[in-house]
Amino acid sequence: MTLEELQKELNRCLGCKVKPCEKACPLSVSPHDFIALAKEGDFKSAAANIAKNNPLPQTCGLVCPDRFCQSACIRKKIDTAIEIPCLQANIISKGGLPELDLPTSNNKRACVIGGGPAGLGALFEFLQNGWSVDIYEKENQLGGAARLIPPYRLPPKVLDREINRLITNERVTVYLNKEITDYTSLQQKYDAIVIALGEIKRRTLGILGEEQSLDYRRYLSAPQTYQYQKVAVIGGGEVALDCAITLKKQGTEVVEMFVRRRQEDMRIMAKDFAELAQHQVIIRALSSITEIHPNDNLYNLTVINNRINEQGKAEAIPNTSYNLTGYDKVIMALGSYFPKEDLPQDIPYAGDMTGRCGTIVEAIASGRATAKQIITDQTPSID
User: Fold this and answer.
1) Is 113 helix (H, G, I), strand (E, B) or coil?
2) What global pTM score does this model have?
3) Alpha carbon distance 190, 110 (integer Å)
4) Nearest to 164 by CA among 104, 102, 210, 120
5) Could you give the CA distance from residue 307 to residue 86 in angstroms, rounded to a whole number?
6) Which tens digit of pLDDT belongs to each residue from 320-348?
7) Which domains can be identified in the chain, with CATH numbers?
8) What contacts 64, CB < 8 A, 6 or more positions away?
9) CB of 33 within 8 A of CB of 68?
């Protein structure tokens, strides 16, 4: 946004006293308040207002979907909702990240296992309450699933800057390339533990030849290492969207998304559909791949048509199978999950492990809430 565009969008805010946008934010960030400050030209205070509740404020502004604060915006009853996430990202860019305010130490130390958005949310909450934190991450950098978001949506320097703000102080010790499997010994060492391992297992379809497909996480972690001419992407959500657009940006000539439900059921935003159209990504709605057949160095697909039944579920239409040929690769982009049978029984966990977080902001909120509950439980009551 140019400064003129930013000011124009800020001025569209009605300043609603009921603040529906704040109520809709998983982190209780108040667009009403930070927009009011930005309207006066005080971008520094506006940025600080955002960052007091959100440890990854510009990241969330860049990648948050429109179903939270923007969906709650009363302005849409007049014309269109204010583009709040975009405003948030631009305000942080102009106002800068405030210094992290560390209260007096309470001599308690927490262990956070997992350095993704939920782990960083827990880290932030502990720090805000005077704790010291050791954070363990099995990869060689913090960020977790946020690192899979393509650079055109989330420049790595933005995420790096926000993470560095959280960990560059005497209260935090980071252990990278460190996978923790023994929680019992850690319980004896720390006052609290939060586990935030993310979604470790990809969702699959159980179809013939599925082992031939490429995991979306593997692709998005290093897309520049893969060069294709024709690719099938299975899925209709944000990770499938990221795969499809990234493939096109990497020069893939034909990209087809196979979506088992209707196009209007896809969990992406209106602007995402426009981007798919701009990049000439083919959306095969109400279509399911049922078999993947290797053919020399290519793959052939068996596909069946679907319909939405009276219960609102997608079901295959009998006798509608057909074959498609000549794909360099099939990317499985249905998302991931954490197996329920592997959840810890006596240690608090947060984020994607809960099965209730589909976005970065929800994962951060989950990490903060889990840490906050631990802190509350350990705070002596005053009679």
Assistant:
1) strand
2) 0.95
3) 6
4) 120
5) 36
6) 999 999 999 999 999 999 999 999 989 99
7) 3-95 (1.10.1060.10), 109-199+338-378 (3.50.50.60), 202-336 (3.50.50.60)
8) 85, 88, 359, 360, 361
9) no
